Each structure stands twice: as structure tokens, then as C-alpha cells.
């Protein structure tokens, strides 16, 4: 054993030692690591069964998935803070995790002629504060709204550990803030101070060459209590009209009766969708996007690490 130890030390000259240290410190950005990071999420959801599609209910629709990660030196620019261009790969991981959690039942695992896929159409981001080298942070990503074609996601990159959700919908074993009377939720001002950046992402669902309306995908995945109509491109329905059970085109004619609680829940979901749609389309300004961060005032889907650690 001593001979092997001495042989290893003889090869570990200071240049090799420096290389190994740099690789460890920048593990997040070594070649093929993007694929390994996404594969980890894929295996978590599809192979190890950390969450089951039948666990989802409409209560999970607007809840965020929380991904923790950090900024290695290789992601920092000459100003010694995280480079703006590196936020996109972090958002890839966070959005990918949310998609696997919510739409596992509706999406195809492998691409193909008739596969159902979610395709990213556009990204927009605004920065509020810098992230320093080796600093840890969290990405809270959730469904914001949708229309006849597009599904809009909002992501908030925030200070790690500052905000603790009430509970975790898919991780009941994880302790949340709920039940701790001494720990009050953060105020709006405190939430804004904890945001490094906010992003809006726009997705479309495709089955082959056919566009799948987001409402149909949500219904298929059990995220709507009853079916919503596929919103027409030229739809200009007023908010008050959308809040009646008749105008919601509820799929109740097939039955002799329907659950009034489901109707009320569907109306609440539709109201939230309509209220958030101008924000998702960036018609209300970026301050409105930052304000969409709910922090520890609501539950979350779960908390996840980007790598083996955050």
C-alpha cells in the first residue's frame, strides 16, 4: 500500500495538482456536464420514480420547482461575478426539471415522428443583482400562464436558503415553513431584495407537426379539475365572462352532474391565468415579473440539487 501511495505522489507534481483542483472547483462546467446534469433529473423522475404522475392534482399547477446550484469560477467574467450568458444553462436545468415533474404523463421520452415534445420558443431575462464566484443560489420555476398556443414559465433566481416554502407537494418528508409560528413569511420588499434575476420562457407543445394547446396538455396531465377550451388566437373574452361556468365550456354535458367544487377551482385557475397573461407576454413591464415571486408565502413542488450538491 505504501508503494502505491508513493507512486501516486510521485506523479502528482504541482501542475497536475493544480489541474485536479481546478477541475474540482469547476466541476459544473467540464465537457458533457450539461448532459449529465439533465440526465440526473431524467433518471430521478423516470427511473428512480422520485415522483409519480398520479400524484399530481390541480393544486400543483402553479407551484414552483426549486433547484439549487452555484457559480463556479469558470462561469464568472472579468468583473468577478457570474457571466450573464451562463444563466441560460441553469434555466435549462430548472425548466427541464419542472417539465419532467408536471408533464411526465404527456410528453414522449424519446424524439420521433409522432412524439409529443415541449419546445422552447423564446427566453427573456432581466438582472437585478450580481452573483459572486462560488456563491450558491436557487432557481424557482413555475407555470405563469398560457394562451391558445404558448405555455409561459417564470423563473426567479434568488438567494439560497432565504426563502422556505410552506411545504413541498411532491416531497411530504421535507419540512417546510408551515407550522412554525415563529417564522413569518417574507414581505414583498424582502422578496424583491432576494432576487438576483427573473426570466420568462415561452414553450409550445408539438405532437409531430401538430401543435397541442397547453390546456389539453394540462388536462391530460391531471393539472385541471375539468377541461378548459382551447383558447382561440383571436379570443378577446372579458375577465367577467370567463368567470362563469357556461363560458368556461366545462366538460360536464357528458355527465348528469358535476362537482361544484371543481367548477370553482377551475374558475380560480382561469382567473389566475388571465391575470398573469399580460405579465407573461411582457406587456406589464419587468417589475410585474419580479412581483410574481411568491417566495415562502406558498408551497412548492419540491427542492432539488442541480449536481450532487447545490
From TrEMBL:
Family annotation (InterPro entries): HotDog_dom_sf, THEM6_lcsJ_thioesterase
Keywords noted in UniProt: Membrane, Transmembrane, Transmembrane helix
Pfam families: 4HBT_2
Transmembrane regions: 12-30
SUPFAM superfamilies noted in UniProt: Thioesterase/thiol ester dehydrase-isomerase
Record-stated family: Belongs to the lcsJ thioesterase family.
PANTHER family the UniProt entry points to: PROTEIN THEM6, PTHR12475
Protein name: Capsule polysaccharide biosynthesis protein
Source organism of the structure: Botryotinia fuckeliana (strain T4) (Noble rot fungus)
Upper lineage: Eukaryota, Fungi, Dikarya, Ascomycota, Pezizomycotina
